[in-house]
Amino acid sequence: MNSDGLKRLLGGVSPKALLAGVMVACFLVSIPIWLTSSPEDKQHLAQTAVKKMVETNVDLLDFKPEEKEELRNMLKPEEPAKQPDFEQTVWVKDIIQTIQPWVSDESEAEAIARWVYVYSKRSNLSPELVLGVIAVESRFDHFAVSNVGAIGLMQVMPFWKDELGQQKDNLLEIETNIRYGCAILRIYINRYKTLSRALGAYNGSLGRMKYPNKVFAAMKRFKATDYGI
Questions:
Q1: Which residues pair with 163 in a beta bridge?
Q2: Contact assessment for residue 173 and residue 153, using Cβ atoms and an 8 Å cutoff
Q3: Topology, domain 65-222
Q4: How many angstroms separate the CA atoms of 194 and 55, rounded?
Q5: Which of 71-75, 140-144, 221-225 is predicted least confidently?
């Protein structure tokens, strides 16, 4: 049936107008539920909506078994080397100074820099790329929680723990959050092949350049010499 036939069937109402009406009605019905919900319920509703958007619109959680297995392997905690190599020592020291405008506590800055280095290298990512994501996502606030429930430095959504069976992980912890963020970003790079598309997937805006461009701009602050993936 063509659009004219469908319009006649709907009594002269266009399909687009009908769809818009249904969407508005659903929104109006949801308002009382939202207004009477507790803050915890509101956050749960928001997280559910975000997960549903990711699943249906961007199809980012449709992982093959081998992808899930790779993610689980990358999410295994790593003990820092007892004696960091010279490159790591120099890089961490430099980054501590660079992120000082955001992180005044030196021990916290050292932890962020150290774990960024460790997990970016393990995930075969540029450390400056990870720093760029953190700068855009949370401005280096490891206690950051968005209005839809994304958590920590790399704004990881809690549903990742459900997907991967890691319920006990605390995404507010610096090490845990960076470990998750790096692993998720690496999986998206493997899947989408280009960094721009992988960053869009990470942000839930696959196919649009606004978010990737923000990350690329932020990377320059950290003396990125390449966008290595």
A1: none
A2: no
A3: Lysozyme (1.10.530)
A4: 21
A5: 221-225
Which whole number is the average pLDDT over 85-94?
93
What are the structure tokens assigned to 109, written together? 């800055």
- Residue 24 Cα distances to 162, 173, 204, angstroms: 31, 40, 23
Token reading at 44: 């749960």
CATH 1.10.530 in the chain, residues? 65-222
Report how far residue 161's alpha carbon sits from residue 203's, in angstroms, rounded to the nearest whole number.
17
In contact, 120 and 126? CB cutoff 8 Å: yes
> How long, in residues, is the chain?
229
Q: Residue 18 class from Cβ within 10 Å (0-12 exposed, 13-18 middle, 19+ buried)?
A: middle
Closest to 84 in 3D by CA, of 128, 117, 108, 51: 117
**pLDDT tens across 123-173, in order?**
999 999 999 999 999 999 999 999 989 999 999 999 998 888 788 999 999
pLDDT per residue as tens digits for the range 115-124: 999 999 999 9
Q: What share of the chain is helix, strand, coil (3-state, %, to 5)?
A: 65, 0, 35
- Compute how many other C-beta atoms are within 10 angstroms of the C-beta atom of residue 136: 21
- Among all chains, which residue has been given the structure tokens 């909506």? 49
Amino acid at 227: Y
